Automatic annotation (TrEMBL):
NCBIfam families membership: sixA
Residue ranges crossing the lipid bilayer per the database entry: none
InterPro entries: His_Pase_superF_clade-1, His_PPase_superfam, SixA
Protein name, UniProt field: Phosphohistidine phosphatase SixA
Pfam families linked to this entry: His_Phos_1 (PF00300)
Name of the gene encoding the protein in the UniProt record: sixA
């Protein structure tokens, strides 16, 4: 199973609660750019697990316009300060159900970094930039392989034409 772990795009610094912080225009553009980059790599997701916080939902909504998903769930286990071991156990349980599929997780720092660390124990928790995406491949009974971690700052120089298209969406 391929697990894609994504941090939401940049969000407004303040709102009436942390859960209600929306994406900024830059956050929408970052998400758009990363989605355009991901489209040729992933035909669709078998399952998408999203934090119930507004910025994570908005990030998924942008991705959903380009990459289909068979099932989408809002998960309290994916909020910013959720227990990473419980969240990782949830991902592993889904991986057992669908060993050959694609799973997307849209969540927050620090949880996204701790999920990578939990699924790939030799690694230290990486820092995700906003809209950053990591890919991990789970091999049945053989552990996990960390494939990559990319962000808009790496992608943009090579995908400037996509970035210009994304800016027009704002």
């Amino acid at each position: 199973m391929n697990i894609f772990i994504m941090r939401h795009g940049q969000s407004a610094p303040e709102a009436s609660s942390d859960a209600l912080r929306p994406l900024t225009e830059q956050g929408r553009d970052e998400t758009c750019l990363m989605t355009q980059w991901l489209v040729p790599q992933v035909p669709g997701f078998d399952r998408v697990l999203v934090s119930p916080y507004l910025r994570a939902k908005q990030t998924w909504q942008q991705i959903a316009d380009k990459i289909p998903a068979a099932q989408v769930e809002w998960c309290e286990e994916l909020t910013p300060n959720a227990d990473p071991d419980i969240a990782a156990s949830l991902l592993l349980a889904y991986a057992e159900i669908n060993e050959a599929g694609n799973l997307l997780v849209v969540s927050h720092m620090p949880l996204v970094g701790f999920l990578v660390e939990s699924l790939c124990p030799p690694l230290m928790a990486p820092i995700f930039v906003t809209a950053g995406i990591a890919k991990i491949t789970l091999n049945a009974g053989q552990g996990a392989d960390f494939n990559w971690l990319e962000g808009p700052h790496n992608i943009r120089p090579h995908y400037e034409h996509y970035y210009q298209k994304c800016r027009s969406l704002g």
